[in-house]
Amino acid sequence: MLTTTEPKRFPPWLKKKLNLGEENIWTREVIDSLSLHTVCDSAKCPNINECFSRGTATFLILGNVCTRNCGFCAVTPGIPEEPDGDEHLRIAEAAKRLNLKHVVITSVTRDDLEDGGATQFAATIKEVRNKLTNATIEVLTPDFNGDEKSIRKVLEAGPTVFNHNVETVPRLYKWVRQEADYERSLSVLRYARGYSAKLRTKSGLMLGMGEEKEEVVNVLEDLKSAGCEMITIGQYLKPSNGKLEVFRFVHPDEFKEYADLAKALGFRYVASAPFVRSSYCAEEGLLKV
């Protein structure tokens, strides 16, 4: 059993000012008017108001109900509806209205679909490319159960960045990602890295779930060996009742230590701080690479 010494109060570095200006309202209006989902809302991201106020959002395709029930995630688990055949058109339209230069697309896990939703990913990438010819596109994908045909279908559509998160250290998978597999996730990244030298590969970790420093370092080494170039490291925050408790709040100085270690290992882009999330300031990360 995963034990916890859950902190009772947020430390000062985990307090964030709300920004509810006109740009925030406009971003929400665009998303709502096109009946789209964002991972910002569905996963209860703490950066949502900041990102919406900059006119950016991470689109969530294939509905907002996930076939898996990970211990860390706020997305609703259950039986999803059939994929929306027009969703890719509305996402491209939203990206155009928001004048996005970098479009980030993620999804719930769809183990109920033969290709895990790869066809929807590919269609969305292609339609965004048609609408915004100069935009860069980043995908944050599930593991597709390790099926290389599905992964290749996404890659053939031509994303600029391929992101797949390992989320935590292998020892904690039985609680954090019960239906996932650490080695399988590494193989997804390894396959993407081998597909094209031009493709940027990315992954992410959450801290504060009971991991040890040595375990985090081992994960960083594994990711680098798998060909991962970009890494995000952030603080786990409990999204709702029934989810895993926070084991501890990691100090910003410790995040900096991991950033320095990752850079020393050769990662081309590292974002490591309490509020960092997979797609937080994603365009900035790509520009640095």
Description of the molecule:
With 289 residues, the chain is of the alpha/beta class. The mean pLDDT is 94. The N and C termini lie far apart (40 Å). The protein is built from eleven helices and ten strands. The chain has one domain (16-288): TIM Barrel (Alpha-Beta Barrel), CATH 3.20.20. An eight-stranded mixed sheet has the order 1-2-5-6-7-8-9-10, sandwiched between helices. α9 links the parallel β8 (200-207) and β9 (230-235).
User: Helix proportion of residues, in percent?
Assistant: 25-40%
How many helices does DSSP assign?
11
The number of domains is 1
Envelope shape: globular
Largest sheet: 8 strands, mixed
N→C terminal distance: 40 Å
Percent strand equals 5-15%
Instruction: Give the topology string: H per helix, E per strand.
Output: HEHHEEEHEHEHEHHEHEHEH
Low-confidence stretches: none
Strand order of the largest sheet: 1-2-5-6-7-8-9-10
CATH architecture: Alpha-Beta Barrel
Structural class by sheet pairing and helices: alpha/beta
Average pLDDT score: 94
Task: Look at the structure and give the CATH class.
Answer: Alpha Beta
Query: C-alpha Rg, in Å?
Result: 18 Å
The fold-level CATH name is TIM Barrel
CATH superfamily: Aldolase class I
